[in-house]
Amino acid sequence: MSGPGDPNSPDPRGSTDAPSEQALTEIKAKQADEIVTCDACPVLCRIRLGKTGACDRYGNVDGRLARLSPLVVTQRVLDAQGELVPFLGKPWAGQLLPEAETFVTGIGAGTTYPDYKPAPFIIGSEVAGVDMVTVVTEGIFSYCGAKVKIDTDRYIGPEQAAVRVNGEQVGHVTTAEYGSQMLALGGVRHLTGGSKKEGNVTCDTLLTLCNKGAVDMTVDGGASLRVQAGKPPVIDGQEEHRMRVGCGSATIGIFAQQWRDHVDEVIVVDDHITGVLTEHQAGRFLEMKPAGIRVRGRKSTPGRYFQVANPGTGWGGTDIADPLAIIEKISPGIAWPGLRLLMVSTTGEHFAYFVLDDDLKPQAATMPQAVALAVERIGENCEPALCTVLFMGGAGGSLRAGVTENPIHLTRSVQQALTRVTSGGAPVYIWPGGGITVMVDVDTMPDNAFGYVPTPALVAPIEFTMRRRDYERMGGHMGYVRSLDKLRLDQVTLLPWRPAQPWPLDPLSDGSGESE
Ligand code: SF4
Q: Does 43 sit in the ligand 1 pocket, CB within 6 Å?
């Protein structure tokens, strides 16, 4: 390669004559060959011509540092009734449509480092007669993670158990929710507090999940999982289809009336709360005769039993394959020959029908049509099992300096709902209390909205929208506010607005309790 130390390269400084055309060409080639230093994050990559930096977000294009992915802009047009007009059916030649309302997202906007530099885009606009400002950036989140909700009854592993990807711990199983198992992944300890490999695998896992990709993981002492936002979970190689209708007790409460005329007893098998119809308040209320069938486990309240079996991937998230295994005793004198017993799981996927014989032993029997319909009804009331990935990150740190010289004013403005925070245009949940801790469902964001830097940390789009007056008051970078038509938008990807989502530029509170 011809370079500054190359003896074959002509040195224009040593010549008194005008440089030849060939020399000029070589000088230009050398200039173009210059390495550029990316200052968009602390890694400070030195990037050769035509190459990209470590995160692939920035590259050396013609000797110039360039953000390589296009900036994502979203537009909408409403008709007189306020309905979205599908204007993007028009031929698209790369230009923004002038008749549309426009929102510039942080996706592809680039980052600024060190943080005191103003954010890459600070856009002034007028919305319904009010001057607004949107500060647009890609935040580098060292403090971030993902909360993953997996709609399943199946046991995935003990609470607090390590969740691993390629053998590295990337998070843990956390408190289960109603019908769902939960994972807490990432966080600063796994990103920075362990080995370099742990940090990189954690970062890669978060990046893939947040960009809606699939990740295979294992739980210590539990199951193997395939998790992907908006898709059914795969547990130990089996795709989950149904999210349970409720716990065993709730299932009894919902369907008791529909069962009463067709069976004498129903036991809804559930790892958490197994329900027994005739003992349950619902059965009593319907004046059902006690059936004398006692299940194992610890009785909580009438007709509600805990710990009838061990957790597992069998009936109702227990480890049982034979439902009769949870029956402790059948009381003579209360139960009777011919008693009709339905046993069913909380999703209706497992079910069995028995009739007690003369010795009060349950014998498998053909399920009457009315009972089969009642079981089907459980399935009908189950929602599809999905994985939900919520990105969670701390935006209350130094990225605020790209918005204002006095960051606490931004924090307060967000807390007072004078500033709206969005991520790729999607609404975020702001945790109460100190800081700006945001949480966003990645499925509501455009695809591939996230990037990373090898510090390691995730890069996520973030936009702060407020009235211009409030921006000025908080000490915003007023000299950098530009209207959209003054922006040089070389590379733009235009996305149609998602009608189900609130428009980020909708009127904001003016602090008086009124919207303006
Ligand atoms: S990792 Fe990416 S953002 Fe950071 S310096 Fe390198 S190219 Fe720039």
A: yes
